[in-house]
Specification:
The chain is mainly beta. The chain is 13% helix and 39% strand. The protein contains two helices and 34 strands. The strands form eight sheets. The chain has a seven-stranded antiparallel β-sheet with strand order 20-21-34-23-28-29-30. Strands 2-11-10-5-6-7 form a six-stranded mixed β-sheet, with no helix packed on it.
Length: 475
C-alpha cells in the first residue's frame, strides 16, 4: 500500500492544490475499482429433499472476495443463512434451522465465487435467498429461488367397487412435493378422463393423492396410473388389467329399484342442501355488508417508528429521510418501520381499505395489541402478525415460511377484512374484488387486534431502503 506523507514547510501553500487533486483522484479510483455486480442464476435452483445443493453466486467482473462481507439470507437481512466476514465464517446471527448445514465454498473465493452449499435439504428450505456482498461502502446483492421437490411412492392401484355399469378403480400414492400431476392412460398411451381426484397435504408437509376412474367392459381394460413431479420432470407408473369376469351383470329389476332409491335420496338431499344454501347466503350477505361499509381507521402516532412521517389527520404514512426525536415510550416500534391503527377489535367483522400505490417496500395487515415493539421480530403469525407484503418485485403472504402470491399485477388498493369470531384474516384487491389471500379460519388472531402497517425495509441498523413507499387509509 502506498503511503502519502509530507512535511510542513514554506512550500505547503504552493503544493496544497496538487495534494487535494491527488487525494480526490486517488479515492475516486479506489471507489471505482471496488464496484462489481453480484450474479446468480436466472432460473430457479431445484433440489430433492435429503440431498445437498449448491446455490451459485459470483462477482462480475471476477475479483477476490476474501476480504469482503458475504451474507446469504432469506426474506429479511437479519434472517441469516450463512455469513462470512473478516476472512472467516461467522455463526453468531445464523438461523437455528441452518446450524451445521451450510458451507461457503471458498475454493474459488479469490476469483469472486461466493456460492453456498446447503446440506440435507428439507421442505422448509424452499423459497427466496439473497446473496449479499459488501466491500467497504459499496454493496450489491442477487436474488435466487430454491425449489424443493420429492418423488413420492409408486402408484398403488386397487379395484374398489361396481359403479355406473362398470368398475371403480382407484390409484393412490403419497410423499410428493410439490403437488403432482395424475393421469390415467390406456394401452395406447391415450389419456382417460378421471371420475374424481383428491389431493391433501399430510403431516410431513408432503402431498397424498387419490384418483379414481370408471372402467367399462370391453373398453380400456388395460390401463395405467401415471404420476408426475412437474419440477423434477420425473414420473412413476403402475399398470393393471381388469378381466371380464369382474364386470357386473345388470338385472332390470335392480335397475328400477336403484332408480327409485336415487330419486328418493336426491329429494331428501336437495331439501337439506337448499336449507344450507339459504344459511350460507345469509352469512355472505352479512359479510358483504361489512365490506361495503368499512370501519374508519386512523394511525396511532404513539406506536410509529421515528423514521415514519404521519399526516396530520392520521390517514397516511411514509418513510422519512431521518429519524425524528420522539419519546421512546413502550408502545413505539424502535427497529422496524411499523405503526398500528388506533382502533382495536375483539369481536365481530371489520374491513378497511389501504391505498398502497406502486412503492416497492410495504406491508399491510393486522397484529395483536400485545405484539412486541422493541428490537427485531419476525413478521409472521408466530409473532402475532397476519399480513401481506410487497418486496421488490415479489408479492407474498407473511406466513412461515412465506407464501408467494403469483398475481398478474400488483394491487394499488387492498381491502383488509378481519373476522374476530372465526379467527380469519382476508385480503381483497379492492380494484376488481379479486381474492388475494386468506389466513384460514382458526389460524388467525385472538384477543384484541389492531390494524398494522410497515413502510420501507431495514437491511442494516443504519440503512433503510424503500423511498417513495406511502400507505394511505381510504375514507
Amino acid at each position: 500500500m502506498k503511503v502519502l506523507s509530507f512535511c510542513p514547510s514554506s512550500a505547503v501553500s504552493t503544493s496544497l492544490p496538487d495534494f487535494i487533486i491527488f487525494f480526490i483522484i486517488y479515492h475516486i479510483h479506489k471507489l471505482e475499482s471496488a464496484q462489481f455486480r453480484v450474479m446468480g442464476p436466472d432460473h430457479p435452483v431445484t433440489a430433492m429433499v435429503g440431498e445437498n445443493i449448491v446455490l451459485p453466486c459470483h462477482l462480475s467482473p471476477r475479483m477476490s472476495a476474501e476480504n469482503m462481507e458475504v451474507r446469504w439470507f432469506r426474506s429479511e437481512f437479519t434472517s441469516v443463512v450463512h455469513q462470512y466476514q473478516e476472512g472467516k465464517d461467522q455463526y453468531g446471527e445464523q438461523m437455528r434451522d441452518y446450524h451445521g448445514r451450510t458451507e461457503l465454498l471458498k475454493a474459488g473465493i479469490t476469483d469472486g465465487n461466493v456460492s453456498l452449499q446447503i446440506l440435507n435439504i428439507s421442505r422448509s428450505d424452499e423459497g427466496q435467498y439473497s446473496c449479499f456482498v459488501q466491500d467497504g461502502p459499496f454493496y450489491e446483492e442477487a436474488l435466487l429461488e430454491l425449489k424443493v421437490a420429492v418423488l413420492g411412492s409408486n402408484p398403488l392401484i386397487s379395484v374398489e367397487s361396481h359403479q355406473d355399469g362398470g368398475i371403480r378403480v382407484v390409484c393412490q400414492s403419497a410423499g410428493w412435493y410439490p403437488e403432482p400431476k395424475v393421469l390415467w392412460r390406456d394401452l395406447r398411451g391415450q389419456e382417460l378422463p378421471s371420475l374424481s381426484e383428491a389431493k391433501s397435504l399430510g403431516d410431513s408437509g408432503l402431498f397424498e393423492t387419490e384418483n379414481s376412474i370408471i372402467i367399462k367392459e370391453h373398453s380400456n381394460q388395460n390401463l395405467s396410473c401415471w404420476i408426475r413431479n412437474t419440477v423434477l420432470n420425473q414420473e412413476k407408473e403402475s399398470t393393471v388389467y381388469i378381466a371380464d369376469s369382474f364386470f357386473p351383470r345388470v338385472n332390470p329389476w335392480m335397475v328400477a329399484l336403484s332408480a327409485i332409491l336415487v330419486v328418493l335420496f336426491v329429494s331428501i338431499g336437495l331439501t337439506v342442501y337448499l336449507f344450507k344454501i339459504k344459511d350460507a347466503l345469509q352469512r355472505e350477505l352479512d359479510w358483504r355488508r361489512n365490506i361495503i361499509c368499512p370501519v374508519n381507521v386512523t394511525l396511532d402516532p404513539d406506536t410509529a417508528n421515528p423514521i415514519l412521517v404521519l399526516s396530520e389527520d392520521g390517514k397516511s404514512v411514509r418513510r422519512g429521510d431521518t429519524r425524528q426525536r420522539l419519546p421512546d415510550n413502550p408502545e413505539r416500534f424502535d427497529y422496524w418501520a411499523c405503526v398500528l391503527g388506533c382502533e382495536g377489535f375483539t369481536s365481530g367483522r371489520h374491513c378497511w381499505e389501504v391505498e398502497v400505490g406502486d412503492g416497492p417496500f410495504w406491508a399491510v395487515g393486522v397484529a395483536r395489541e400485545s405484539v412486541r415493539r422493541k428490537g427485531w421480530i419476525s413478521h409472521s403469525p408466530k409473532e402475532g402478525i397476519w399480513a401481506v407484503e410487497r418486496l421488490w418485485g415479489e408479492f407474498q403472504a407473511l406466513t412461515s415460511p412465506r407464501t408467494r402470491l403469483p398475481l398478474s399485477r400488483f394491487p394499488s388498493r387492498i381491502r383488509v377484512c378481519l373476522d374476530c369470531d372465526r379467527g380469519q384474516v382476508t385480503f381483497i384487491d379492492a380494484g376488481d374484488e379479486a381474492l388475494i389471500f386468506t389466513f384460514p379460519p382458526g389460524s388467525g388472531p385472538g384477543g384484541r387486534i389492531r390494524p398494522w402497517f410497515r413502510v420501507g425495509r431495514r437491511i442494516r441498523p443504519w440503512l433503510w431502503v424503500g423511498p417513495g413507499s406511502q400507505l394511505s387509509l381510504c375514507p
